[in-house]
Amino acid sequence: MRIISGIKRGLKLNPPKSLDTRPTEDRVKENMFNLLGNLRDLKVLDAFAGTGALGLEALSRGASFVLFCENNHKTLTTLKDNIEKVNLKSYTMYSGDVYTALNKTKEKFDLVFLDPPYQDLEAYGKVLNHLVDLDLLNPGARIVCERNHEINLPQGFDCLKSRKYGSKWVDIVKWSKR
Fold it and tell me: Which SUPFAM superfamilies is this protein grouped with (predicted)?
């Protein structure tokens, strides 16, 4: 696990200590970020942050801010260690569930990484609806959904691109107001 591009390119990240966390493989992450293009000055939500690899990659590539949310106590230590290792200051880390974090934030996001535990089949729709209900998405915001099963997108979200990597799918979704 490493930062692939940007100002922290090549920096190795700590792997998860818990088997509950499945970080995005480097080849998948590289392809995902190639699909996303320029991230300069974007505000990013890493909703189920795990090791923080996606949010930290976004910061390295020029994102202006990342909100990391993680509620797995076994994973939080690794997330904190990786954030300290990368040493980029434009972030907030929330230790708890994403819904509570979103209720507390004033940020509006341009990019969202959504990679919930695969057994939580309803998390995609619940998080997206929560973001909309709280008006936390900027117009044209993109959402990256990592999944291993079909998901139903709420109204107002359109899938722009979908790629399969082994048993995992990565969807790039765009928000257009309802």
Answer: S-adenosyl-L-methionine-dependent methyltransferases
